[in-house]
């Protein structure tokens, strides 16, 4: 484990390990997101970062570990030099969320490194916040004529905070109108699903181009959340995915924005 950041672990009954750390100015962070058709990986070091971000539908299980190894080699570090592993914990593709969670857990156990689960919706909101937006609605295509939805407002520290909780919902069931100046980000806004007329009018003001989460944005968000003690990294065996939908469907209809 990197000497730049010391982790102290203590056993706490059946809850497993709680991680306490002494923060240093830098961290070696690996971030992965496979919750959609894009395979997104970022390796963030002290003064530079390395990124793999490609449209590779149905290939995540095959390419994720080899591409991570390539980035580690480019950076000249080993996995045991990682201080934190960030992963997209969902919501998103059931299989993609499981792959990201499983790979993050395996690497975390092997490297004795804690994990930071990051919401895919908050990651997208963070990307919008970096463009100067304050009120942000996020929707990812969930198929079955539904979207994964949440609304955020950026606080004084630049962090998107929930104003409407994450949920899976038809667009037609969103019966609240956004505040003036709200921006929309995510693949869910580009679907052909039934949308209330007044919400459709709001969407005409413009939907941001980015449709899916980016691992580098998730790494940046995790750094800020940890620094503000709004996120406590967990032991690998305690990291949990978030699906929002209990029922899993196998449909051939492609997702939007992939």
From TrEMBL:
GO cellular component, one term: cytosol
InterPro entries: ATPase_NBD (IPR043129), Gcp-like_dom (IPR000905), T6A_TsaB (IPR022496)
Gene Ontology biological process terms in this record: tRNA threonylcarbamoyladenosine modification
Residue ranges of domain Gcp-like in the record: 57-178
The family this protein is said to belong to: Belongs to the KAE1 / TsaD family. TsaB subfamily.
PANTHER family xrefs: TRNA N6-ADENOSINE THREONYLCARBAMOYLTRANSFERASE, TRNA THREONYLCARBAMOYLADENOSINE BIOSYNTHESIS PROTEIN TSAB
NCBIfam families with a match to the protein in the record: T6A_YeaZ
Name of the protein this chain belongs to: tRNA threonylcarbamoyladenosine biosynthesis protein TsaB
